[in-house]
Write a structure and sequence with these properties.
This protein is of the alpha+beta class. The strands form six sheets. It has an eight-stranded antiparallel sheet with strand order 18-17-23-14-15-22-19-20. The radius of gyration is 25 Å and the shape is globular. The chain binds guanosine-5',3'-tetraphosphate. The site of guanosine-5',3'-tetraphosphate has 19 residues, from helix 2.
Length: 526
């Protein structure tokens, strides 16, 4: 019984956005509501800010600090909320994609001035892969933004998801008056105070109520009446099940920095957002209320102290109760493993925990046994599915600078890849090793960490590659023929999966035409 109750209490989600849309600010305001932090600025100071490339050491340092803010747990009303932080900087996009495998829903922040931006589109594609439910928060209403109807159309078009506004702004920018909640028909007036939490709304169940005119002026009151009529006419009634199936995104408007519209968002979030959901292993669907514990690792964070190789592995609990100090089964290694040092993250504090429940994220101190994607269970063998790798954008060949340190280099590279810093592709031909990343930053990070932590040095030689394509075919003979004919361009990823390294888009489409029996995928999960 306790298990079911604990599950029903939990909401585990991620906030995603294009950098600068207001993700950090919104996170902070949510934590303030939960009483998890006392003052504004606390999360902000941990934010990874990226300005110049030369700042990367600072960024890595902050990444170290940000372990504590990787997961922020807090209690709100009768719910235990876990926010999983996702790095905004696009060079760390892979980190974000993996984190999204560990959430049950997301809140997507969109800047009302800029609309849907590139990074948001990419993140939405990842959400779509698993039908993750999405709530949109259109932010910065205190600025002169785009027309709300245009923004909604743009979300539908660019993010390819149906929307349903659940609140509506009254004007914008300098004349921004507030939002009207379509959930409980209440009016929230904007006072423009950054420090105060916005209070309860004014109940205006009937829009013809003259109080509306008194509060916002006749013009805006009439505009709101028109807008609400139009919305109720154009958009179908909000259906929670449709949202939970990832088919429609409810939309809220507000201003995070002014703490405006955040409470409505949070209140609706705890009403609608799904509790911990079942997850698939290679063998079956595992339900959270099963008695036996299981979970998977979605992130590994190295400690920044080079003298200690300890790492923190972040595990999402999928089913059953996790207990500290108990022996669990490490599926990939086929052996038992025990964690005596286990932390959970409440606000910005790491706390030693003795037990955790589905939906929770625990930090396991690890000395190198765990990899991203590993499954822990009470004996069952199926690995959890769904930690995909995406084709990197930039590829460079590793050139060992010190033949005496070959072993160190190999070990360092492998461990950094296990942490998910970048992807390694090994060509059979000539035993060449190629590192692939989403952003240029990682190469410097890798070089620096190899030197400092593993005493190995390497150079990176740029390679002209377009994409890494995971290949597959049901026809084994054809697959072998393909491998033979393209031997020079075939490599293996860290799990030994076959990858075709395409040099250009045009060439890839030619190869696709010539080998119709071969499937080419830009992600390792298909
Ligand atoms: P991110 O995590 O998505 O990258 O965005 P972040 O919260 O850091 O917000 C980016 C900038 O937008 C910040 O300004 C923040 O103060 C501002 N911002 C957030 N919400 C609102 C809002 O509702 N209205 C307005 N006008 N601005 C908002 P900054 O100048 O980069 O930082 P700071 O100096 O204000 O801390």
């Amino acid at each position: 019984m306790a298990l079911k109750e604990e599950i029903a209490k939990r909401r585990t989600f991620g906030i995603i956005s294009h950098p600068d849309a207001g993700k950090t600010t919104l996170t902070e305001k949510l934590l303030l509501f939960g009483g998890a932090i006392q003052s504004a600025g606390a999360v902000k100071s941990n934010k990874i800010k990226m300005h110049a490339r030369s700042d990367w050491m600072e960024i890595e340092k902050q990444r170290g600090i940000s372990v504590a803010t990787s997961v922020m747990g807090f209690n709100y009303k009768d719910k235990k909320i876990n926010i999983l932080d996702t790095p905004g900087h696009q060079d760390f996009a892979e980190d974000t994609y993996r984190t999204l495998t560990a959430v049950d829903s997301v809140i997507m922040v969109i800047d009302c001035v800029k609309g849907v931006e590139m990074q948001t589109e990419k993140l939405m594609e990842v959400c779509r892969m698993r039908n993750t439910p999405v709530i949109c928060f259109i932010n910065k209403l205190d600025r002169e933004g785009r027309d709300p109807y245009d923004l909604l159309d743009e979300i539908e078009e660019k993010l390819r998801i149906k929307v349903r506004p659940l609140s509506w702004p009254i004007s914008m920018g300098k004349t921004f008056k507030g939002v009207y909640s379509l959930v409980n028909n209440s009016l929230h007036l904007f006072k423009g105070s950054k420090s105060k939490l916005d209070g309860e709304g004014l109940n205006i169940t009937d829009l013809s109520d003259p109080q509306l005119d008194t509060e916002v002026g006749e013009n805006d009151a009439n505009q709101l009446r028109e807008d609400v009529e139009l919305i109720e006419g154009v958009y179908s009634k909000f259906d929670v099940e449709e949202y939970r199936a990832g088919k429609v995104a409810p939309v809220f408007f507000g201003s995070a920095v002014n703490n405006f519209g955040v409470k409505e968002l949070l209140d609706s979030f705890i009403d609608f957002a799904p509790e911990p959901l079942p997850r698939e292993t290679e063998e079956r669907l595992v339900k959270p209320d099963e008695n036996k514990f299981s979970g998977f690792i979605f992130k590994i964070h190295a400690n920044m102290d080079p003298n200690h190789r300890n790492r923190i592995a972040f595990a999402r609990i999928c089913a059953g109760k996790f207990e500290r100090g108990k022996n669990y089964f490490h599926v990939r290694d086929n052996k038992k493993i025990r964690f005596s040092n286990t932390t959970m993250f409440m606000a910005q504090e790491k706390e030693l925990v003795d037990e955790a429940w589905p939906g929770d994220i625990v930090g396991l101190y690890d000395t190198g046994n765990l990899k991203i994607g590993d499954t822990l269970s009470e004996g069952e063998k199926g690995m959890y599915k769904g930690i995909p790798s995406f084709s990197p954008e930039i590829f460079k060949e590793v050139i060992n600078k010190d033949a005496m340190k070959t072993k160190q280099l190999e070990k360092g590279l492998n461990q950094l890849m296990e942490e998910g810093v970048a992807q390694l592709f090994s060509y059979e031909l000539g035993a060449r090793k190629v590192v692939g990343t989403v952003g240029a930053l990682q190469f410097e990070v890798i070089q620096h960490r190899l030197k400092n932590e593993y005493n190995a040095s390497c150079d990176f030689m740029p390679m002209n590659l377009y994409k890494a394509c995971w290949i597959h075919s049901t026809d084994k003979k054809k697959l072998n023929e393909f491998i033979d004919s393209k031997f020079r361009h075939i490599a293996k990823d860290k799990d030994g999966k076959l990858v075709f390294m395409a040099e250009s888009k045009a060439w890839l489409s030619m190869v696709q035409d010539n080998f119709p029996e071969i499937e080419f995928h830009f992600t390792s999960e298909f």
